[in-house]
Amino acid sequence: xxxQTPDPETTTPPAPGAAPAWSADDLRDDPHAKADKxxxxxxxxxxxxxxxxxxxxxxxxxRDQAWRRTAVKMAQLKPGDRVLDxxxxxxxxxxxxxxxxxxxxxxxxxxxxxTNQVIGIDFTFPMLPLAKQKNRRRENGRETVAFLNGDALxxxxxxxSFDVVSIAFGLRNVADPAAAVAEFARVLRPGGRLVIxxxxxxxxxxxxxxxxxxCEKVMPWTATWVARDRSGAYRYLPRSVATFLDGPATVAxxxxxxxxxxxxxxLSFGVATCYAATRA
Length: 280
What we know:
Order of helices and strands: HHHHEHEHEEHEHHHEE
Number of domains: 1
CATH class: Alpha Beta
Strand content: 15-25%
Helix content: 40-55%
CATH topology: Rossmann fold
Radius of gyration: 18 Å
Strand order of the largest sheet: 3-2-1-4-5-7-6
Number of helices: 10
Distance between the termini: 24 Å
CATH architecture: 3-Layer(aba) Sandwich
């Protein structure tokens, strides 16, 4: 297994006063079309890593953890599964996947050996020490999850290495979502499961109006204030959701990439969506 070594760019957050990753002009058009999107996303997450969890809890009203629990259920974990959580951030879904394996391992009395059984990987290095610390606190200092620095478009694992691949709120942030899904298919064993958790736009007109008011007018100001952010991260978020693939388009992408039985589950009245598919 080859693990990418962090370079100075990935380990150093943007310096105070540096140019924002996303300016208002950058976000007038489709942010996904920016040629340097990968660099901007990495700088953005490096800037907000320290307040990432706090903003997630506050601005989802605590629902983000429930959404991750749904993703774990849709992964249909089995004893002995190897799990890769891509764009793991501070490790919430990675840790939830490992805990899901514990509860599903009847042969071990509800406890599954987890050394390298669950791996989290993220493009933004400053997220990973936070994920590692969180896991240690929850597991009384034990290293139950491996956290690596790497790119979703070039996963450092052999073909057919995992039974489950997951990604939460990260697919829209990669430079090429179709190439990322192809990488997920490559590292999954036949019959392996892919789970994608992503923000979405409610279909109900009233809910859609309320969601846009909150996401485009309220949340960017409050989240930016909480994080003391100058990167433009919380202006990018609603724009990146509004211009990303909708549910049917995401399901179509999964089917085109070698996945069968692709299905979706709407969460919190359509604010988020969980997709699950099986590697053909």
